[in-house]
Amino acid sequence: MNMLNPMVMGEIEPLADAILVGFDVQSQAILDIIAGHHEPQGRLPFQLPASMSAVERHCEDRPLGMECYRGGNGNLYDFAFGLSFKRTSGRD
From the CB of residue 38, how many other CB atoms can be counted at a distance below 10 Å? Predict the structure, then answer.
């Protein structure tokens, strides 16, 4: 999915085996990652809310402080959260 603004992932994640998010990235870059030509990496540029009620409770004039979504694997989707994958040569 192309994410330009925060989304309520709790409505999507339980229904998916995987979610691939791009932030207005070229399609070729996404395809190169899927094909294994490049390692995915990145950081969230904003918080992902835990629910719509968390969005409604959040003060608009505060850049952080929203109740963030915690995924099924325990990750907290807060500002600057990210993942990267490091390849191993198989010779370790």
Answer: 13
- pLDDT averaged over 10-residue windows placed end to end, the chain, 92 residues: 89 85 89 89 91 91 90 90 68 42
Residue 47, Cβ density class (10 Å: 0-12 exposed, 13-18 middle, ≥19 buried): buried
For residues 31, 32, 36 and 42, what is the CA-based torsion angle, rounded to 10 degrees?
A: -90
Q: What are the strands, taking DSSP E only, across the chain? A: 41-43, 82-84
Beta-bridge partners for 76: 70
pTM, to two decimals: 0.78
Distance from C-alpha of 12 to C-alpha of 20, rounded to nearest angstrom: 12
Q: In one letter, which amino acid is 90?
A: G
